[in-house]
Specification:
alpha/beta; globular; Rossmann fold; binds flavin mononucleotide; 2 domains
Length: 316
């Protein structure tokens, strides 16, 4: 019997719901699924106090792993496929997932193994997946596919609804002016198609070939208007992150003070850089078209955005 390991971490339960959806579909085809829900020694709070939320950004960006609680699965177990389901923190994989990949147990599990990454986040995941690719490559894993589920509301709306959700715990499902935050429930439910496609591929030993298993299922859709913002934002995170790490560890008083200055800078940057780069992209579209298409293709690899196999794996 084929065996799949699904590793994930979730604060609000969003990634857990995506994992449920995918795992149920895999298991219904008679494939064994082990789930590893990551726990850090020092739990991250939810909802987040404002400064605690900001204070994890340097370590997230520099991939400094926090200590993990021991895994419930044995690193010596043999899996046919590993699914890593992660959320993005500051344009980087969330710290618990980084910690898993960099841990001795994680390295042992990943070495030589086919891997599928599944992201659920607000809408900015491109730089995070670049870092993920590098970490997986360093661990000797073979990345076959990437799925990215995002909040389908506009960047402006999610700029309000996501922080409200993360800082207060209020997702906004009670019928207010703004739509609820997070990945739409229908998108979470239809993630089952990825589970069915993975099960079908495993039944045919396709994971051994090394080709993507989830093409034709609209696994990712890159919004090319956000590429420049992600690149600029990430560069600025590296500069501020270096400074903040040099000042002291998380919670150090001077670091909190500089974080307060950084918070003002960050808000200014988000409300200026994102709309300006999006507007410039729109105005220069005819000139940038070819380059943007190349970038889209690059960031949508390996699974792509085409939908020609959707009908084969539809779940009612
Ligand atoms: C500290 C922090 C930073 C985040 N940074 C990003 C980000 O850079 N890009 C993004 O699209 N989402 C970002 N998010 C949203 C998360 O990716 C995710 O959607 C949300 O935290 C819910 O995930 P979970 O409940 O499964 O843990 C961030 C969330 C947190 C807590």
């Amino acid at each position: 019997m084929k065996k799949v390991l699904v590793v994930y971490y979730s604060q609000t339960g969003q990634i857990t719901s995506v994992v449920d959806s995918i795992c149920e579909a895999i298991q219904s085809e008679g494939i064994s699924v082990s789930r590893e829900c990551l726990r850090t020694e020092q739990a991250y709070p939810f909802p987040w106090p404002f400064f605690r939320f900001l204070d994890v950004f340097p370590e997230s960006v520099y991939l400094d792993p926090p200590a993990l609680m021991p895994l419930s699965v044995s690193p010596d177990d043999d899996y046919d496929l590993v699914v890593l389901a992660y959320q993005v923190w500051y344009l980087s994989p969330s710290l618990p997932m980084t910690a898993f990949i960099k841990s001795a147990a994680g390295q042992k599990i990943l070495e030589g193994r086919p891997v599928v990454t599944v992201i659920a986040c607000r809408n900015m995941w491109l730089m995070a997946q670049e870092k993920m690719k590098k970490m997986l490559n360093d661990a000797g894993a073979r990345l076959l596919d990437n799925v990215a589920l995002v909040d389908s509301q506009s960047a402006l709306v999610t700029f309000l609804t996501t922080p409200r959700w993360l800082l207060t715990g209020n997702k906004g499902t009670q019928g207010g002016v703004l739509p609820p935050a997070g990945v739409a429930e229908s998108d979470v439910a239809s993630a089952a198609r990825f589970g069915s496609a993975l099960a079908s591929a495993l039944e045919n030993d396709l994971e051994k070939i090394g080709e993507p298993l989830l093409t034709g299922l609209e696994a990712v859709k890159v919004d090319t208007r956000l590429i420049a913002s992600e690149k600029i934002g990430h560069r600025s995170f590296l500069i501020w992150g270096k400074l903040l790490r040099a000042i002291g560890p998380q919670g150090a008083p001077l670091r909190q003070f500089v974080l307060a200055i950084y918070a003002v800078f960050l808000v200014c940057m988000i409300i200026t850089v994102v709309p300006i780069t999006m507007a410039l992209k729109f105005l220069l579209k005819p000139l940038l078209k070819k380059g943007l298409e190349r970038e889209r293709e690059y960031f949508e690899a390996p699974s792509g955005s085409s939908n020609n196999r959707m009908k084969d794996f539809l779940h009612e």
